[in-house]
């Protein structure tokens, strides 16, 4: 629908305006901060903007259900943000960027979106300038600070978006949803790194449920459910509307992350912007891996456990592991789960107390996020 592309343009413009202001503040402190401001602008210029879109359609699902006019339709006024949803959607993109910067440090990833990850970018800056000390340590330290800065900027944008609301209760509700999302992502990130280190100490029967728990808290809620609920809260959603959006958003978020797990193993680097088999080298204990361990013979399972997490895996070893995951039926099982979760999500919209336009767009978005190639 035209509103989606128009909303993405408005979010791009809001981020650009915001970063221009913040760039000026940083370089007024010191010109040495220009690389941080420049990196932040480049990093926030890309991405699929799914979180911004789900925030907007969560808002429209409630606002449109009550017969409200959409100021962000293409014939609306792009110069104003009377309900704050553009700034809040931009805040979610800023928060996502912060999470990616920190995630790449944790995972020792070299690339993101086809370019050097933040810590590698600043490692290169150190090395090229010939500064004293350890270039890798400088890169990681700087990237941690960049991620923290982006988190703070996300809070600034949330404040800007909620401060224009006439109803303080809506502002409080939206901030509460944002704060819950922020806590859950941090918890999910810890559970993810815990699983990589502690999986051998867990009963076999618990490996798949624990991997599913990571999906829910690290990605599913924050990628789709939370943006929907934040947008809905801005529009004054009632409990039934919030529940309907959760019933849609959580299963779709699980499908979204399962697709991400497949792309992390089988994705085309030219499309994903990350090396093929990256999750295999990083040792991600995903649901895909848990399912494969259930299906593999003992000898194959031992080989998978031995190779998974080896950063030195060569192309032939990656290809062998990929074929193992396909041949045992794990990939087919993940595809089956994705389809079932998408069906569960879309079924939740059928009689939901949400606007017709939003239900149609969310149904279309469900297929987009679950079948994407990057």
From TrEMBL:
<dbReference type="InterPro" id="IPR000092">
    <property type="entry name" value="Polyprenyl_synt"/>
</dbReference>
<dbReference type="GO" id="GO:0046872">
    <property type="term" value="F:metal ion binding"/>
</dbReference>
<keyword id="KW-0479">Metal-binding</keyword>
<comment type="similarity">
    <text>Belongs to the FPP/GGPP synthase family.</text>
</comment>
<keyword id="KW-0808">Transferase</keyword>
<dbReference type="Pfam" id="PF00348">
    <property type="entry name" value="polyprenyl_synt"/>
</dbReference>
<dbReference type="GO" id="GO:0004659">
    <property type="term" value="F:prenyltransferase activity"/>
</dbReference>
<dbReference type="GO" id="GO:0008299">
    <property type="term" value="P:isoprenoid biosynthetic process"/>
</dbReference>
<protein>
    <submittedName>
        <fullName>Geranylgeranyl pyrophosphate synthase</fullName>
    </submittedName>
</protein>
<dbReference type="InterPro" id="IPR033749">
    <property type="entry name" value="Polyprenyl_synt_CS"/>
</dbReference>
<keyword id="KW-0460">Magnesium</keyword>
<dbReference type="InterPro" id="IPR008949">
    <property type="entry name" value="Isoprenoid_synthase_dom_sf"/>
</dbReference>
């Amino acid at each position: 629908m035209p509103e989606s592309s128009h909303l993405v343009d408005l979010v791009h413009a809001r981020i650009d305006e915001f970063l221009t202001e913040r760039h000026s503040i940083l370089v007024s402190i010191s010109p040495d901060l220009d690389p941080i401001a420049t990196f932040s602008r480049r990093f926030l210029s890309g991405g699929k903007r799914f979180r911004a879109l789900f925030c907007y359609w969560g808002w429209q699902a409630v606002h449109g259900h009550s017969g409200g006019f959409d100021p962000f339709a293409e014939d609306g006024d792009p110069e104003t943000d009377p309900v704050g949803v553009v700034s809040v959607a931009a805040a979610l993109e800023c928060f996502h960027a912060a999470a990616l910067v920190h995630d790449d440090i944790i995972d020792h990833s070299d690339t993101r979106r086809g370019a050097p990850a933040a810590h590698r970018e600043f490692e290169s800056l150190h090395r090229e300038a010939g500064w004293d000390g350890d270039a890798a340590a400088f890169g990681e330290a700087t990237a941690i600070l960049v991620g923290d800065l982006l988190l703070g900027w996300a809070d600034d944008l949330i404040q800007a978006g909620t401060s224009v609301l006439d109803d303080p209760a809506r502002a409080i509700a939206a901030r509460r949803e944002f704060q819950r999302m922020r806590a859950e992502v941090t918890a999910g990130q810890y559970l993810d790194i815990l699983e990589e280190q502690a999986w051998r100490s867990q009963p076999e029967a618990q490996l798949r449920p624990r991997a599913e728990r990571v999906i829910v808290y690290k990605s599913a809620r924050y990628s789709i459910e939370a943006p929907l609920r934040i947008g809905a809260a801005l529009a004054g959603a009632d409990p039934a509307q919030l529940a309907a959006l959760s019933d849609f958003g959580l299963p779709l978020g699980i499908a979204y992350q399962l697709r991400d797990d497949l792309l992390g193993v089988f994705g085309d680097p030219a499309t994903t912007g990350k090396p093929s088999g990256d999750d295999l080298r990083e040792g991600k204990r995903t649901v895909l891996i848990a399912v494969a361990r259930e299906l593999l013979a003992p000898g194959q399972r031992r080989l998978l456990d031995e190779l998974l997490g080896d950063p030195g895996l060569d192309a032939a070893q990656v290809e062998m592991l990929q074929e193992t995951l396909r041949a045992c039926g794990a990939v087919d099982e993940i595809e089956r789960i994705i389809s079932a979760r998408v069906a569960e999500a879309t079924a939740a919209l059928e009689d939901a107390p949400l606007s017709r336009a939003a239900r149609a767009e969310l149904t279309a978005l469900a297929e987009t996020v679950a079948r994407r190639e990057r």
